[in-house]
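for the recovery benchmark. tokens below, seq after
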């Protein structure tokens, strides 16, 4: 009889490790790759970056060379009074000066003397140089600086949105993994309880056990079946949440394969090197998208402040051009042309009280200071976020190690109690209680493994660059 009991319950223990039907594992790397490639939030992030690049191209448009052509004629009672023809090519430069190549031709009996030209027309080559307000910077150079800052903001915005998306996806994946593991544990528990019920029923029929043992075994089957039903609901909900992150290249939501199960491949527990904290904080300060956005906003505010301060100076502009007849175009650069054949001008405008200019300068100073304080605050907060994320990982790793030990101890207690039952020194109730403890501890272990996966993703987001967290 004793050998029969040993054989039955030895087989029961063996069922604990029985493999489930083959399923298709989906690692987090595979899951995250599909999320990052096709999720609408990732596509929108790419559009943010593209918009910023388009805005930069638009700002460069202020430096686009421009062709102009003007023709004006007047005739009265059949007599041609004048014909004025003006054509020019104006080339803006990043230094603020504008180069200009012009052609003008005047005809008519009553044309203005100051606009008279030779019959073949007059060429001019010169430049316009700002003095005062627009010497150091101007509206177009400021707009270009701001557009470059917006480009950097767009790049950082894209990375930040993708990092946030992957963090949410990692949490969903971790919850799915934990729920799936708990269901697997509950499934094994039900199979084992049913096997024990069949074994006990056979023993009762053989007169080897009291009928009350059948009730105990039946209750355990029902109890674990309820736990399995709850686990089925949990895994379905977690699976649907994880599935909501998956889209195809056409922007159509896709479903997980029916046989897909989460896997810890690539997310196995490793001892985190806490000595790298300072390196991660340094990487965060250099590469974190939110800090890059804050730096870009500070650059933009600085450009606006510089332009506003320039407005406190008089608005002065000087222009000079060498002129020559059309058939003498090669002489435009000759030195004597600049002394004897030229056009020059000077325009100066300034406000008297500078009320508008002083108000704008004060406002841009405050805007710059606001951006600087925001950048400094964000730098401190993100440094704390890196430390908190690292502490969470270290704590979870310690708890995981302790929980694995708990599972091992609970398993040893269950095995010992089962041996006592085989020897007639214990009851089925106590064996079931010991096995419930194993199931509970294994479920806690699965939950902690899922939390660790999410905590590692949180560290990546806190640092701001996945490549530096390995």
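predicted aa per position
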């Amino acid at each position: 009889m004793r050998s029969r009991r040993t054989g039955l319950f030895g087989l029961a223990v063996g069922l604990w490790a029985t493999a489930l039907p083959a399923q298709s594992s989906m690692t987090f790397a595979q899951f995250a790759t599909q999320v990052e490639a096709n999720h609408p939030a990732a596509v929108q992030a790419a559009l943010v970056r593209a918009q910023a690049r388009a805005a930069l191209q638009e700002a460069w448009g202020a430096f686009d060379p421009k062709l102009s052509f003007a023709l004006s004629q007047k005739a009265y009672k059949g007599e041609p009074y004048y014909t004025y023809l003006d054509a020019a090519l104006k080339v803006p430069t990043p230094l603020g000066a504008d180069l200009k190549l012009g052609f003008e031709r005047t005809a008519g009996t009553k044309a203005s003397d100051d606009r008279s030209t030779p019959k073949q027309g007059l060429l001019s080559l010169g430049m316009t140089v700002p003095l005062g307000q627009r010497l150091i910077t101007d509206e177009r150079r400021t707009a270009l600086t701001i557009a470059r800052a917006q480009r950097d903001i767009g790049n950082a915005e894209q990375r930040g949105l993708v990092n946030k998306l992957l963090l949410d996806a990692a949490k969903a994946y971790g919850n799915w993994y934990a729920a799936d593991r708990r269901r697997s544990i509950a499934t094994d528990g039900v199979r084992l309880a049913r096997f024990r019920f069949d074994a006990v029923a056979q023993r009762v029929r053989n007169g080897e056990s009291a009928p009350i043992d059948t009730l105990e075994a039946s209750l355990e089957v029902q109890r674990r079946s309820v736990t399995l039903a709850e686990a089925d609901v949990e895994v379905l909900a977690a699976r649907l949440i994880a599935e909501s992150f998956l889209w195809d290249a056409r922007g159509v939501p896709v479903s997980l394969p029916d046989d897909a199960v989460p896997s810890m491949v690539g997310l196995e527990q490793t001892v985190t090197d806490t000595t790298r904290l300072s390196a991660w904080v340094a990487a965060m300060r250099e590469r974190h998208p939110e800090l890059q956005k804050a730096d870009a906003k500070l650059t933009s505010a600085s450009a606006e402040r510089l332009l506003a301060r320039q407005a406190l100076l008089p608005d002065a502009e000087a222009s000079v051009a060498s002129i020559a007849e059309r058939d003498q175009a090669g002489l435009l650069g000759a030195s004597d042309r600049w002394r004897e054949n030229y056009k020059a001008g000077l325009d100066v405008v300034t406000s008297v009280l500078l009320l508008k200019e002083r108000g704008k300068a004060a406002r841009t100073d405050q805007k710059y200071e606001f951006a600087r304080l925001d950048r400094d605050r964000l730098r401190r907060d993100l440094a704390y976020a890196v430390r908190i994320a690292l502490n969470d990982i270290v704590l979870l790793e310690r708890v995981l190690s302790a929980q694995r030990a708990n599972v091992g101890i609970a398993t040893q207690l269950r095995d010992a109690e089962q041996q006592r039952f085989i020897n007639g020194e214990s009851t089925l109730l106590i064996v079931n209680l010991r096995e419930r403890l194993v199931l509970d501890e294994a479920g806690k272990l699965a939950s902690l493994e899922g939390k660790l996966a999410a905590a590692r993703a949180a560290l990546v987001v806190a640092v701001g660059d996945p490549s530096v967290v390995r």
